[in-house]
Amino acid sequence: MAASTKDPRPCSIADALALVGEKYSLLVLREVCLGNGRFDQLVRNIGAPRDILATRLRRLLDAGILTKRAYSERPQRFEYRPTPAGLELEPVLMTLMAWGDRHLREDGDRPMIVEHVCGHELTPLVVCAACGGKLHHEHLTPHPQTPGWSVRGPAAA
């Protein structure tokens, strides 16, 4: 059966972006990975309006990317922390930061440097888990798995 030309390509990238692709969602994740999980810290460090931030936090909690724990009973206040699924997104943040440092920082001044446990500055690198080879566009061959779709789009009827 051919895919409908009205439906977009089924895609895990699109699914992930629907959840974390909005600017403030990734910045929330940045802050909680830095250890700044209290609401007031998030407001200050992200600059998001409080209502939008509260909405993003609920979505990230519901998706299992963040968890929360009370740190004050009176008044009741919570601290947000990354779950294992949230921590799996940290390499994405590091790769985005490195790309931004290379392509968007004209003055060469980087807002943050991350040190790896080895004592050196982190330079994220995507490699194949099977062979250890670096990711290069010309080494990739996509194989669509959704019936009715090819690399070029919906298959002909």
Give a written overview of the molecule.
It is a single chain. This protein is α+β, with helices and mostly antiparallel strands. The protein has a domain at 1-88: Winged helix-like DNA-binding domain superfamily/Winged helix DNA-binding domain (Arc Repressor Mutant, subunit A). 38% of the residues lie in helices and 12% in strands. It is built from 6 helices and 4 strands; from the N terminus they run H-H-H-H-E-E-H-H-E-E. It has helices spanning 12-20, 23-33, 39-46, 50-62, 84-87, 90-103; strands at 66-73, 76-82, 149-150, 153-154. The strands form 2 sheets. The chain has a two-stranded antiparallel sheet with strand order 1-2. Helix 2 crosses helix 3. The chain is globular and about 60 Å long.
Task: List the keywords.
alpha+beta, Arc Repressor Mutant, subunit A, two-stranded antiparallel sheet, two-stranded antiparallel ribbon, 6 helices, globular
Detail the topology: elements first, then pairings.
Elements: H1 12-20, H2 23-33, H3 39-46, H4 50-62, E1 66-73, E2 76-82, H5 84-87, H6 90-103, E3 149-150, E4 153-154
Helix pairs in contact: 2-3
Beta-strand percent range:
5-15%
Structural class: alpha+beta
At the third CATH level, what is the topology name of the domain at 1-88? Arc Repressor Mutant, subunit A
Top-tier CATH class of the domain at 1-88: Mainly Alpha
With strands numbered from the N-terminus, the spatial order across the biggest sheet is: 1-2
Mean pLDDT: 93
* Bulk shape: globular
The largest pleated sheet is described as: 2 strands, antiparallel
Q: What is the terminal separation in angstroms?
A: 7 Å
Provide the CATH superfamily of the domain at 1-88.
Answer: Winged helix-like DNA-binding domain superfamily/Winged helix DNA-binding domain
The CATH architecture of the domain at 1-88 is Orthogonal Bundle
Assembly of the depicted chains: single chain
